[in-house]
Amino acid sequence: MIYPKNFEEKIGFDKVRDMLKEACLCELGRQKVDEISFYTSFELISKLLSQAEEFRQICLMESNFPVGHFIDVTPALKKIRVIGTFFEVNELIDFRKSLESIHAILNFFKNKDQNQYPNLTELTQGVQSFPIILNRIDAIVTKSNQIKDNASPELAAIRKSISDKVSSVSRIMLKILKHAQSEGMVDDDSGLSMREGRAVIPVNSTYKRKIQGIVHDESSTGKTSFIEPAEAVEMNNAIRELEFAERREIVKILTLFTDFVRPYLEELFQAYEFMGTIDFIRAKAIFAIRVNAV
After folding, report:
1. Which of 75, 182, 246, 276 is the most buried (most CB within 10 A)?
2. What Å distances lie between residue 37 and 6, 40, 89, 109, 293, CA to CA?
3. Which domains does the chain have, with CATH numbers?
C-alpha cells in the first residue's frame, strides 16, 4: 500500500506518465503507461530497466527499427469474436498495416545477434507474424485500400455490369445534353451534374417540361432545373440495384475472411500485447534520452 494516495502527484510522477504517453505510438502503449505501478522484486525491476536501456541503444544506434503503423485493432478483434460479425474495410486496412508492423519488429530482432538485445529478444518468444493472414488480406484488398474486383467471381461480374451500365448512361446523357443545347434549352457551357447520386442535366426552367424525366433539384434562383431524363431513369435504377448487390457481396467476402481469422484470435491478442509492450518500452527509452536519464 502506498501512502498517501496522492504520492505520485506529490513527487510529480503523474507528469512522467503524461510524457511517456506522449512518446507512445498507439493506445496499446498508453494503456501500459496507465498500468505502471510500484514493484518490490529486484529481479523484475532489473529486467525492466534492462529492456529500457536496450531500447535506448536502439534509438541511439539503429536507424531501421520499424515504427510505422502501430495501430490498436484489438477493439475489432474483440468484436469479431461473435459469429456473424465481420471486419469493415477500414478495420481490415488497419489490420493489415499493424500486422505488417508486428512482422517487421519480429524480423528486426530475428536478424540481430541474440546477445545484442537479449531482454527485448526474449519478448519475441512465441509471438507469431501471421503471413497466412497477410496473404489472405492481400488477395482481397488493393494497394489503394479498396476491395479487389477479383476478390470473388461474383464481385467481378457485378462491377463489370455496373461499369457497362454507367458507360451506357453516360452516352445517353451526353446525347440528350447535346440535343438540348442545340435547341437552346441548356447553356452551351453547361455539363452534366450530380444530384442525390444521379446524373442530371441543368435545364433552363422555362423549357423543363420539354424534357421528359424527373426534376431532382432547382437552382437557388429557380432559373435552372436539374432533370434526370426518362431514358436514363430505368438504367440508373438498375445501377443502384447493382450497387446494393455489390455491397452484399463485399459483406460476404469480409464475413468469409473474418471466419478464417477467428480461430487465430488468441494468438493475435498475444501479438498485439507484444506490440503494446514494445511501444511502451520505446516510450521509456525516448523519455530517458530526452531527460538524459540512465
Report:
1. 276
2. 13, 10, 38, 28, 19
3. 7-148+271-290 (1.10.1420.10), 154-248 (1.10.1420.10)
Q: In what order do the strands lie in the sheet with 198-204?
A: 193-195, 198-204, 224-229, 213-218
Structural element, H or E, at residue 195: strand 193-195
Dihedral Cα 199, 204, 205, 209, nearest 10 deg: -70
The model carries a pTM of 0.83
**How does pLDDT run across 109-144, given as a tens digit for each residue?**
999 998 999 999 999 999 999 999 999 999 999 988
Residue 185 and residue 211 in contact, taking contact as beta carbons nearer than 8 Å:
yes
Other Cβ atoms within 10 Å of 238 Cβ, number:
15
Residue 290: left (phi > 0), alpha (psi -120 to 50), or beta? Answer: alpha
Beta bridge partners of 225: 203, 218
Return phi, psi of residue 69, to 5°.
60, 45
Q: Is 187 left (phi over 0), alpha (psi -120 to 50) or beta?
A: beta
Residue 65 to residue 57: CA distance in whole angstroms: 11
Nearest CA-CA partner of 165 in 248, 226, 240, 244: 240
Cβ(224)–Cβ(218) under 8 Å? yes
List CB contacts of 112: < 8 A, sequence separation 6 or more: 121
d(CA 229, CA 208): 11
CA 97 to chain centre: 8
C-alpha cell at 209: 417540361
> 538485445: which residue's cell?
117
The CB density around residue 228, as the number of other CB atoms within 10 Å, is 21
- Mean pLDDT along residues 71-95: 96
